[in-house]
Amino acid sequence: MDEPVAPFREKAFGRFPFRSRAFIKIQEGCNNFCSYCIVPYARGRERSRALDEVLADCRQAVAAGFPELVLTGVNTCAYEDDGRGLNDLVDLLCREIPGSWRLRLSSTEPSPDNFGLLETMARHPERVCRFLHLALQHGSDRILRAMNRRYTTQEYAAFAAAARRLMPDIHLGSDVIVGFPGETEADFEQSCAFIRTMQFANLHVFSYSRRAGTPAAEMSGQVPEAVKKERHRVLEALGESMAAAFRQSQLGKILPVIFETIDGRGIAHGWSDNYLAVSRPAREVELRRIVPVEYRG
What we know:
Layout: E1 21-25, E2 27-28, H1 39-43, E3 47-48, H2 51-63, E4 68-72, E5 80-81, E6 84-85, H3 86-96, E7 102-105, H4 115-123, E8 131-133, H5 141-147, H6 153-166, E9 171-178, H7 185-198, E10 202-207, H8 225-249, E11 254-262, E12 267-272, E13 277-281, E14 290-294
Parallel strand pairs: 1-4, 4-7, 8-9, 9-10
Antiparallel strand pairs: 2-3, 5-6, 11-12, 11-14, 12-13
């Protein structure tokens, strides 16, 4: 059995433009070994940053005036320090750090083990952004198995449904790959159909590309580039329509917004907690503060 990996320390605090978001790294490495991905070979085993240092870094960021903290990592859901996981870390940050600020998770995994994280997020609506980026990668269980992903479409859908039930109006985004080796037209149509049922607020579409040293690079059934390009186009169009539907669903709602910048026309631009771009005349708002704003599209 592998020995547990000791937590690491950064011993540094970053400062960022506009003083709107502080990106706090909490984790490195990945043990998932998805068949298309080079990251586990390049970045090494999963290891987590010491919890006390993460807490201190977040305190410092809030004291320095950052209204939003973003927890980042290669696989943030793998965070663990002395038996305390991401769920515990989020709960601790929300309880221990006072002030007007909010917390955003950069990405998460749709694992059955992470339902507790959803419950923790829902317990702290004043702190945790209604946002989850759940990498799907494909909507066919056959292709998910070939990718060595650790869930089925049924499990993914159940996780997404729980997130929406616990946090209404949550922004659910995802990544998807087209043209994975062996992907047939039927697989692609099945993926499109599943993605359509998910109604993602944003969708990042990637065409599969070979990475030397990964199992997928040696798989038979490599998909022609022209086919990948067309499938990419189809899914991008679907993603745009779903994003428009999500924006439409939020019209007239009061959302907590942080305005970050002012353009040359005197218009302030910012983001809601559920990751919608919001603009207002700069004279009407205050920068780098969480303010309630009616969403107008």
